[in-house]
Amino acid sequence: MLFETRHCAPCDELHRQGFTRDKTRAALAPFDIARFSLSGRETLTTPDGRRSTAESWGRELKISYTPSVVFFDDRGREVFRLEAY
Hints:
Elements: E1 2-4, H1 9-18, H2 22-28, E2 35-37, E3 43-45, E4 51-53, H3 54-60, E5 68-72, E6 78-82
Parallel strand pairs: 1-2
Antiparallel strand pairs: 1-5, 3-4, 5-6
């Protein structure tokens, strides 16, 4: 999961530079990626099957920096997190 905010220079740089690199794209190819605004109020289903909003779920995960990338296993448990670009 990729959590971002509006007017986030590091988020923009991540998309403009990081995600355009061939090695990065190849490394991410095996993953299902969802992108959310940290203030998003749209309803979503979390990896463990619960219904929430991006805003509530982000608070629950204690996301405090954007961009943040959170990896989950097949059971919906967090296994790794990057809180910086």
